[in-house]
Design brief:
The chain has 91 residues and is α+β, with helices and mostly antiparallel strands. It has a domain at 2-17 and 43-89. The chain is 22% helix and 48% strand. A hairpin with a 2-residue loop joins strand 4 (42-46) and strand 5 (49-53). The chain is elongated, with a radius of gyration of 15 Å.
Length: 91
C-alpha cells in the first residue's frame, strides 16, 4: 500500500481525501456479530484520473463530466501492473 501511494505521488497524483467509512455487522457461520469496516481508503487525483488505495485493492479510474468512463482494479501488492497501467494511460 505504501509503495503504491509513493508511486502515485511521484507520478503527478495529489492527495484527495478518503472514501467514506462505514461499519457493518457481519454474521457468518463462524462469527456472530463481527463488525466489518468498509471504506476509509486513501484517495488521489491527477486531472481526470482518480485512485483509491486500500490494504488489499487499488482502483484507478477516469471521470469525465462526473461519469466514470474507464476503471481498473488491482491487487495493491502488484505494483508492476499498477505502474504499467498508470504509465500507459496517464503519462
Amino acid at each position: 500500500m505504501d509503495k503504491v501511494i509513493q508511486f502515485l505521488l511521484e507520478n503527478g497524483f495529489v492527495e484527495d481525501g478518503q472514501t467514506k467509512l462505514a461499519l457493518h455487522g457481519v454474521e457468518t457461520a463462524k462469527e456472530q456479530g463481527r463488525i466489518a469496516v468498509i471504506g476509509g481508503r486513501a484517495r488521489f487525483r491527477n486531472l481526470d484520473w482518480f485512485a483509491t488505495v486500500g490494504k488489499r485493492t487499488t482502483c484507478i479510474y477516469k471521470k469525465v463530466n462526473g461519469e466514470i468512463i474507464e476503471m481498473e482494479n488491482f491487487n495493491s501488492r502488484d505494483l508492476n501492473k499498477i505502474t504499467e497501467f498508470v504509465i500507459s494511460k496517464i503519462q
